[in-house]
Amino acid sequence: MAEPVLIWGAGAIGGTIGAFLRRAGHEVTFVDIVPEHVAAIRQGRLRIEGPVAEFSTGGPAFLPAELSGRHPLILLAVKAHHTEAATRALKPHLAEDGAVVSCQNGLNELVIQDIVGCERTIGCFVNFYADYLEPGRIHYAKRGAVVVGELDGRQSQRLAALQRLLRDFEPDTLLSDNIFGYLWGKAGYGAILKASALTNDTMAEFIGNPHRQRMITALVREILAVAEAEGVAPLGGFAGFEPGAFMSGNAGAIAASLDAMEKFNRDSPKPRSGIWRDLAVRKRTTDVAAQLNPVRTAARRHGLRTPIADRLVALITDIEQGRATIGPALADDLATVAERR
Q: CA 55, 267, 142: angle at the middle one, nearest 5?
C-alpha cells in the first residue's frame, strides 16, 4: 500500500492523523464537509495544538463534490452516523485495488464492507484524545492506542505498509489478527464515556464515583456479553480498561480496572468525552445511537436484551432533542435500569 493518502473527514481524528502524516512528508489530501475548514487546510492553517504537539500544516483539501480521481488508500474518519453516506460518496474515488480504513469510533467496518466490499475494507482501532475546536484548529490532548487489522485476521503486505505509515502518527501502532476484539473492547469502554456525557462530571469523576460504579459495571457486562455471543474475544489493555475483569465478574479485578481507568483520565487535558462536547458545547446530534445500534442489533440476533444500552440511547436522544438537560438525574435514571438488570 503506497501513497498518496486521502483523509475523508478532517475533524478530530482525521485532521490529527492527516496533519502528522503531512508533517512527516507524506502526500496527503483532505476531504471535509465544512467549507471554512477546507479553506483553512488549503491555506496551510491546519493547527494542531495541545500538550502532545504544536504545529501548523496544510495541503490539498476539497469538499466531497469537488474531489476527482481514484485513490488507493482512504482513511475514513467521520462520525459513526455519517458512515454510510460518506462511504457511498467516497466509493467512486476508491481505486479498484484500494482500501478504506475505518479510523472511527464504533463497529463501522460492518457498514463499510457492505458498500465497498470486505476485501477493500481494513479495520482500525483508535483511542487517542482529540477535539475539533473550530475551522483550522484541533486540540490533541492525549496519545492513545492505534491498532490495524484485516477483517478476516490475516496478515498482508498492505497491512504492514499501513502500520509503517501510521507509525508516523503514532509510533506504537500495532497489527492485530483480532481487530474486532479491539473494536468490541472499545464498545465496552466507550459505553462508559457515553454514559458520563449524561452528567457534567469529568470522565475521571464519573468513573471514580462509587455511586456510579455498579451501573458502569452492569453496562460494560451487557455490551461484552453481546461480543461473547458473536464469538469475539474482546481485547483491552488501553486506558486501563480490562474487559476480562468485567466478563469474569471478579469484583477485585473490576475495581482494579475502574481505578486504572480513573487514573488514566484524571488530569487529562481532555477531561470530558467528545459526546459531552457535542451535546453541551456544539449542540449537535451525537453518534451514540449509531455506535450502539450494531451492538443492539447483534444482541437481538442472539436473543439477548440490552436494557441499559437501550435506555442510554434514549436519554442521549432526549438531550439532543431538548427534552432533557445534562445532569446527575439522568445518570441516576440509567442506574435505576441497571439495578433491575
A: 35
